[in-house]
Each structure stands twice: as C-alpha cells, then as structure tokens.
Amino acid sequence: TGKAFTAKGMQVLEFVGKETIDLLIDETGIEVDKDPSEAEQHDEEEQFSDDISFDRCFYIYGGPEQLE
User: Which residues of 48-65 are buried (b: 16+ CB within 10 A; e: fewer)?
Assistant: First the structure.
C-alpha cells in the first residue's frame, strides 16, 4: 500500500542519511558527542529557531512550487 511504501522509503532515507553523516564525520575528523540522550535534548527556543530558519529558507527558494 501507499502508506507501507512511504514508511519503508522513510526508513531507507533515515539509514542512508545516518550512514552519510557517519562517513562525513569519519572523513573530516569532526569530533561528535556520541551520547544520544544529550543529543536528543532540545529546548523549545532552539527548536523554534530551527523551524523559523527552515520556513524562511523554504519560501525564499521557491516554496511549495519547488516540491513538484
């Protein structure tokens, strides 16, 4: 079904994205904190700032028309 296909696609994208980030970290030698509990902690102000930045960039570069 469409939902199952989308869910599987998202799992693949998450895996590929994680593998890509891990490869970039290894290749560049960037030090990254591996503690997931610390990495997952986001205060609301930081998350709000990220959302605003994404929305601003999304509409600056064409908005929903560019998704097609």
Answer: eeeeeeeeeeeeeeeeee
